[in-house]
Amino acid sequence: MTLNNVVVVGASAAGLTAAEALRREGYAGKLTMIGAEKHFPYDRPPLSKQVLAGTWEADRVTLRQDDALSTLDAEWLLGTEATGLDVAARSVRLADGRVLDYDGLVIATGVTPRQLPFGHELAGVHTLRTRDDSLRLRADLVPGRNLVIVGAGFLGAETAAVARELGLTVTLVDPLPAPMIRQFGAEIGGALADLHAEHGVRLELNAGVAGLSGVGGRVSGVALTDGRTLPADVVLVAIGAVPNTGWLADTGLSLGNGVDCDEQCQAAPGIVAAGDVASWVHPDLGTRIRVEHRMNATEQGIAAANTLLGNGKPFAPIPYFWTDQYDVKIQAYGTFPPDTELSIVDGSPSEGKFTAEYRRGDRIFGVLGWNMPKQTRALRARALATPVA
User: Fold this and answer.
1) Rounded to an integer, what distance in angstroms lies between the CA atom of residue 282 and that of residue 299?
2) Is 195 domain-assigned?
3) How far is CA 299 from CA 45, 96, 293, 303, 319, in A?
4) How far apart are alpha carbons 107 and 246 in whole angstroms?
5) Distances (CA, A) of 302 to 46, 78, 259
6) Are residues 302 and 249 in the same domain?
7) Coil, helix or strand at residue 226
8) What are the residues facing 287 on neighbouring strands?
9) Hey, how many other C-beta atoms are within 10 angstroms of the C-beta on 133?
């Protein structure tokens, strides 16, 4: 089918990259970009690092300048949410009542932060996903204040590092025994626990949160499930995110952990998905995955656009992600299943520089580097490789 009218729902990295790929591959028809936020596409990783620290102003995260955006020849509908989809009629319904027809649709609506079942109405309680979220949290990070972070994953650990360097008292709370243990396992989690403790972060691990208390409408404490209450002037809730698929309910699309797609990122004829919202069958892993990382958004946006144009190929990336905390850069390629075994390849944890592989039998699923970027890149090809040489 010849495309003449493509609608992209989601105006962040994945949606932008899909739009650029469409134009680059010769699509000359109508292109409409729908974004729930009022901002043009911007980069999210700096929001928990440079923007939060105040070393970058928010405008610096903008992904494309006006002249580059103008070359897309797209209609931008920003500050506008999609509220429904009619697959049979090939139309998208917007919050303002408009209905947009399409013959090709890219779903790139990302994720929404999970919230606690209590306390979010209090001033000083934050989540961190958008540019505006980062600026609101930054304004609250006043030196000397008590910051409690609920959740010790990427966002929680990165924010803890920034806040300590800004001079706040920081407590990191998580029900598991180490930071980022879900992502990298117990050994790297233990090393991160030591890193944060060395920088003065109070670690409340194996601990649950029972409630938030407030005085005069502002948060004042975090109650733990063991009966203790931590003093808190500011709270960041960083307990993960859920795919933005509510607007797709009752469409007939398969919505498991996100928008379910095939190997080529297709959810239905004429409909593709990309970025944090997309779940697809990874051909090399032989299983369905969903990746919430920046590089995947770019790569999958391109893959989805090509599928929409009839030039699709199985999408089989080696996932890449990174985190910066204090003077440590961790880079990772591949996947890190909990039943894999970590082995050091180069350097050592005691030196503060090392690379590692995550193996299961004769297969390497992922490689990780701690302050060894060049060596980690050299190991990239071994991620997802089988058998081990």
Assistant:
1) 13
2) yes
3) 16, 32, 11, 6, 10
4) 12
5) 22, 22, 17
6) yes
7) coil
8) 282
9) 17
Which structural domain, as residue segments, surrounds residue 367? 327-382
Per-residue pLDDT of the chain (389 residues; tens, 9 = 90+): 689 999 999 999 999 999 999 999 999 999 999 999 999 999 999 999 999 999 999 999 999 999 999 999 999 999 999 999 999 999 999 999 999 999 999 999 999 999 999 999 999 999 999 999 999 999 999 999 999 999 999 999 999 999 999 999 999 999 999 999 999 999 999 999 999 999 999 999 999 999 999 999 999 999 999 999 999 999 999 999 999 999 999 999 999 999 999 999 999 999 999 999 999 999 988 889 999 999 999 999 999 999 999 999 999 999 999 999 999 999 999 999 999 999 999 999 989 999 999 999 888 999 999 999 999 999 988 887 655 43
Number of domains the chain is built from: 3
Decide: helix, strand or coil at residue 318: coil
Asked whether residue 322 is assigned to any structural domain, the reply reads no
Same domain, 227 and 252: no
Three-state secondary structure call for residue 370: strand
Q: Which amino acid is at 298?
A: T
- 123 and 225 belong to one structural domain: yes
Token reading at 341: 């075994």
Domain boundary among 204, 222, 239: 239
Hey, what are 240's tokens? 């993960």
Question: Are residue 349 and residue 273 in the same domain, yes or no?
Answer: no
| Token couple for 224 | 């733990």
* Max intra-chain CA distance, the chain: 63
**What DSSP line would sit under 249-300, residue for residue?**
TTSS--EESEEEE-TTSEEETTEEE-GGGEEEEETTTTEEE---SHHHHHHH
Residue 379, number of CB atoms within 10 A of its CB: 23
Q: Is 276 exposed, middle or buried (0-12, 13-18, 19+ CB in 10 A)?
A: buried
Domain membership of residue 355 (yes or no) is yes
The answer to whether 80 touches 109, Cβ cutoff 8 Å, is no
Q: Report how far residue 209's alpha carbon sits from residue 281's, in angstroms, rounded to the nearest whole number.
A: 35
Cβ atoms within 10 A of the Cβ of 351, count?
10
The span from the CA of 124 to the CA of 219, in Å, is 6
The sign of the dihedral angle between the CA atoms of 174, 176, 177, 178 is negative
